[in-house]
Amino acid sequence: MRGRLVLGTVVVTLLLTTGYGFGPFCGVIPAGAAGTASARSTGESPGPAEVKIRTVILDGRPAREIMVCDQVVFRVRVELGGLTVDQRAQIIARRLSNLLEETSDFGPRLHPDVIAGQVVVRGGDRMLVTVDEVTALYNSTTPSRLALIWANNLRRALGKPELEASELPKVMPRSKTLRVFYGVASWYGPGFDGNLTASGEVYDQKEFTAAHRWFPFSTMVLVTDLDTKKRVMVRINDRGPWIEGRSIDLSMGAASTLGLINRGLARVKMEILEPVRQD
Q1: Is the dihedral of CA 185, 181, 84, 238 positive or negative?
Q2: In this predicted structure, what is the pLDDT of residue 169?
């Protein structure tokens, strides 16, 4: 019995069950079950789990849907950590396939969690997908709630019982905006990667950080491009920019998310956010 990881038009076949018939299978979903992409009729024989990536257009931008058993479980809409949407989707799909290949008894191990302050969906000791705040904003919810929704999407597709709201990761809801500023954003990266920042950290151009002349270090800032409405969350860890007329210098990773690499400059709104705390 075999399952498949489907990447666009390329099909990569993975062994998801053993010769003894153990392995993950698609769940049997009651007809009309809420929130399912294609509910199965009660009593229909489940088939082997299959992980697929589908390209869709959301709000005028290409996104990737991660599907298991022909049901959408995650949507990847933004670049993160220097990875493109497509690269993130392929990594997530591979993680899912590896998890399904390793065990069929993963129900209790599939849940939302917080790792190093970042909300994620975890499968056992493996982080499956990061739930960033920008994606949560697109869905008008918090990262914690979106992680629970995504975990339940996957559990539902595989016929596992859904988690209750009490399983929400122990982080506070979306940060409150403390102050708002407007200005011009630029970006920096090549030539600075690996150097020390003004905060003493090593600059990593793929991380979502930024330089500002006086925002305190570690301040979280939600930067919105006023023309495209794209948003990215950054942490202040450096000083600058020092060119007159510029307000904030974004890392290459953050600038890529805003589509700023080729343009160079953008009019932005900067929202200083209250720190997200763990209980």
Answers
A1: positive
A2: 62
SS3 per residue for 119-141: EEEEECCEEEEECCHHHHHHCCC
- 36 with 115, same domain: the answer is yes
Kindly report the pTM of this predicted structure. 0.51
Cβ(114)–Cβ(130) below 8 Å: no
User: Which domain covers residue 107, as residue numbers?
Assistant: 3-167
**Number of separate domains in the chain:** 2
Q: Are 153 and 182 part of one and the same domain?
A: no
Task: Please indicate, yes or no, whether residues 106 and 224 belong to a single structural domain of this protein.
Answer: no
What are all long-range contacts of 122-128, with beta carbons under 8 Å and residues at least 24 apart? 123/95, 123/96, 123/99, 124/99, 126/95, 126/98, 126/99, 127/95, 128/92, 128/95, 128/96, 128/99
DSSP 177-207: EEEEEEEEEEEE-TTTTTSBPTTSPBP-TTS
The answer as to whether 172 is a domain residue is no
Q: What is the pLDDT of residues 45-104, one digit of tens each?
A: 445 678 999 999 886 778 899 999 889 999 998 887 778 889 999 989 988 888 887 765
Instruction: Kindly report, residue by residue over 5-34, the tens digit of the pLDDT.
Output: 444 433 332 323 222 223 455 654 433 333
Q: What's the CA gap between 274 and 233, in Å, rounded? A: 12
CATH number, residue 258: 2.40.40.10
In a domain, 278, yes or no: no
Residue 279 lies in a domain: no
